[in-house]
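Session log. Operator J.P. requested a structure for one protein chain; no other inputs attached. Running the standard single-chain path with token output.
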Amino acid sequence: MLRALAAGLLLANLVFFGWTHGWYAPGWQPPRHGEREPERLAAQVRPESVNVLPPKAASAALSAARAAALQCLEAGPLGEAELAAAEAVLEAAQLPEGRMTRDPVQGPPGWLVFAGRYADATLRQVREDELRKLGINFESAGAGPVPAELAPGLVLSRHSSREAAEAAMAAASASAGARLRGVRVVQLPPPPLKQWLRINQIEPELAEKLRALPAAELPGGFRPCAAARS
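Structure written below.
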């Protein structure tokens, strides 16, 4: 009985040994058949595109790939109050120190088609009535940013350039049938300086973290940097 058991175990080991060494292939494939040669070579996808680089070239290629993955993100333009809130958000997000820079931007001045100044309330009311009869819209100088020395007055329109303001004044005069009395083009002072928050050479993981910051706390959120900024 023991001899039969020993013979059976020996036979089983011989069968297992033969199976693991591929004696019974292709009818009975050995274990991990796909990881052996030549099957593994045959399973390659476009093997001709694989190049084995020497250590220095491989290191340079890896560095280049990492540099290409770096991004530039910016948020803005932000006023002083928005800037303080945005920097507090970035500090809470644990942005690495020294990675963020400020890029100041000064917006262009505005231009008004303006009537006034009318210090006398009665005279101002008469002028308002005249403009209404001519069908010309206007607003009080107090409804928007106007130099203090011009108030109280009447703003007929607002523009981003002198040329646009002069064209609007000419159109209003043509509509009224005569040159509008007391109406002129006025330049507004430049708007307050604003800032862009810029982060150069940022890793993809940190870029995703910045994009996920609450928009309510960081107006406009972070987006790719502009190639050039005036």
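Operator note: The domain at 69-106+193-224 is CATH 3.30.70 (Alpha-Beta Plaits).
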